[in-house]
Amino acid sequence: MTYTIEKVTTLIGARRYGDRDANVGFLLTDSRSLCFPEETLFFALKSQRNDGHNYIPELYRRGVRNFVVADVPAGYAVDYPEANFLRVVNTLEALQRLAERHRDEFNIPIVGITGSNGKTMVKEWLYQLFSPGLHVTRSPRSYNSQIGVPLSVWLMDEQTQVGIFEAGISEPGEMLALRDIIQPTIAVLTNLGAAHQENFDSMEDKCREKLMLFHDAETVVYHADDENVARVVAEFRSKGERLCWSTQDRRAPLFVKSVAKGEGSTTVTYIYKGGAEASYSIPFIDDASIVNSIVCAAVALHLGLDARQLAERMPQLEPVAMRLEVKEGRHGCTLINDSYNSDINSLDIALDFMNRRPDHKGRRRTLILSDIFQSGDEPERLYKEVSDLARKRGVVKFIGIGPVLSAHADEIQLSEKFFFSTVESFIRSEVFRSLRDEVILLKGARQFGFDRITELLVQKVHETVLEVNLNAVVKNLNHYRSFMHPETKLVCMIKADAYGAGSIEIAKTLQDHRVDYLAVAVADEGAMLRGNGITSNIMIMNPELSAFKTMFDYDLEPEVYSFRLLDALIRAAEKEGITGYPVHVKLDTGMHRLGFDPEHDMDELIGRLHRQNAIIPRSVFSHFVGADSDGFDEFSARQFQLFDKASRRLQAAFDHKILRHIDNSAGIEHFPERQLDMCRLGLGLYGIDSRDNSIINNVSTLKTTILQLREVKAGDTVGYSRKGAIARDSLIAAIPIGYADGLNRHLGNRRGYCLVNGQRAEYVGNICMDVAMIDVTGIACQEGDSVEIFGDHLPVTELSTALDTIPYEVLTGISNRVKRVYFQD
Ligand SMILES: *Cc1c(COP(=O)(O)O)cnc(C)c1O
Description:
The protein is an alpha/beta fold and 825 residues long. It has 5 domains: 3-90, 3-Layer(aba) Sandwich (Udp-n-acetylmuramoylalanyl-d-glutamate--2,6- Diaminopimelate Ligase, Chain: A, domain 1), CATH 3.40.1390; 106-316, Mur-like, catalytic domain (UDP-N-acetylmuramoyl-L-alanine:D-glutamate ligase); 326-457, Alpha-Beta Complex (Protein-Tyrosine Phosphatase, Chain A); 473-686, Alpha-Beta Barrel (TIM Barrel); 700-823, Lyase, Ornithine Decarboxylase, Chain A, domain 1. 30% of the residues lie in helices and 23% in strands. It is globular. The mean pLDDT is 92. Pyridoxal-5'-phosphate binds next to helix 26 and strand 31. Pfam families: Ala_racemase_C (PF00842), Ala_racemase_N (PF01168), Mur_ligase_M (PF08245). The active site is at residues 495, 720. Substrate binds at residues 593, 769.
């Protein structure tokens, strides 16, 4: 479905500059995701930190001709002769308005989903329940923001029979805009949890805001047993039919009579609108899945699925993997595994993700794709679109798996292409054996069993992994940025292998989000990042005298903290014929670790810097001793005074701007008035608030699996030196993680615990080098079950507290042999 540029101009009430004819098919807000320039309409959005207008020259060069702007570039007719500029007051509102008008074109059921958790699962399951018969358009992944929602709604086209969209809010006032864009005929509240509480005064306020979505809906779906929700719905005079569900109230339109959990599946028995008792089963036993399935049942029954269809389709529900996983594979390959549903929108997002990862090892990009099940699309058209996307996103090699793709091999316009009817035939082929030094995106509908490909391609490792959530890293980054002025620069500390999370992938993510500096400990870490495509500025905190050459070769900027280091650095640079090499001057204001003395060294330092031109101070900084504790606030103030005075003296001695910085993570939040020109974000990036040990957005989860279960009788012992005395008959599990992996031995003998299926299991006896034993008496579990050592459900700070240390030590102690697996929602 395309719109002419005239039509768009009218719909958003813009003033048009430029008179070229054009059709708009794609909306773009992030220049990095450009794919089809000719039909793209770019919205130059302004955020606190960034201004889309800055990307207009680049996008024009890349072929984009249509722009929605707040400011028309001066001399546009000369510089952009072929462009149309649509001028509006607020570009975000224009994007939302356009989506709203697009929405008006459709007279079909539109489901709008909000809630604290479960939105994406409900959306995906509804899609799974409906898509055998209906053409559904839904939000890709979790596009549920002020920008994501209009982009999602825009995806509806002539074939769409049902629209399903998520609406997520983090601040008061946001739902109104989302409601106008989605205009749901059926509004769904999944549940109300604690997420985003901080921006709302009370649970009721949050509920009220979310329920704005209900306002003009014909039908509203919610959980009547939740008192907060029921109260707010009651006071809210929405005209819609109240399709609530309850496990207690028989009069509820959807009365859930019983929920019976079995081995790996759950049966829900219900009565819908006083009809006959019916039931369905789902292949899950966790509470969240059960609740979400009930919400889905309400919507599905309302939209005309009958009890028989529900009973047939519910058992087929697939887990919703909202993740793109990055894994190191054999033979120099990197695997990006996207098990999210197979459809063209999520393929585009996954290709964009692959394309954006910088990779300077010159590796080729390969796409392994299964048949796409998307009803309503002609395969010719669909696979031609796949081919276009793949080419534009830099795919070199295409491997298609499935009968439909094989039959449409001609639509794929790539010179290197291979087709197989099944995963087995691919695995047996020469094509599979010859995968080498490639970045491979795997995207397969579940029934094709792409897991087998991944299993064979991934290096076999220890079953213990550290899962790193890259979205959480970005959320934390934004959390801290929210305390900073838009113009304040940011250094992200990724020393110690990014506090254990793995510096390469973290650096790629941070570079993608345009942080100003990355900081590592030693030159080799910096060189390694350069080798992996990191082009950001890199600071070296502990430059070794032996590594100057490496620094010069790789453009790494050292910190200087002493005259000895300063002189050596100047000599080395002069020898290479280098001038004006940027360095970062460290002052010691109280830590008494490294740094020049701000009271006695400044004259000498300025003198020596003036007498040479090999290096140049790019920044000057110091470090707080106790920014993470109120008890040191006075000392911090003294440190700041010392720094402020000495750094001003340094600046006064030079004409060029010298960036001044002192705030670390805790400083950013607690002394925002001391942010100066730049801040240095460390622990906060990894989701930990060092002041109170709370978790902001958890980044790392250390996981392992149960190797073996055994019953041990009362009176017996477990482990070395018979330390683990067993008082009652017990069930003991062995897990493949030990002190050599970074599981501190002091957690043994029941001083610490891990989580097995959500329940606490204490470490029994001494922790061994590679294995630990835990007490799982009374916990329903089996060999092979997953065990969380710390992470999403067990904060790492609980471990550090039990160990009487700081979370930094626990995180950086995870040894290299523990595989890091990265994902993003
Ligand atoms: C590690 C480090 C930081 C980051 O500290 P956090 O407490 O992790 O925020 C900042 N500055 C310097 C000099 C550091 O070494």
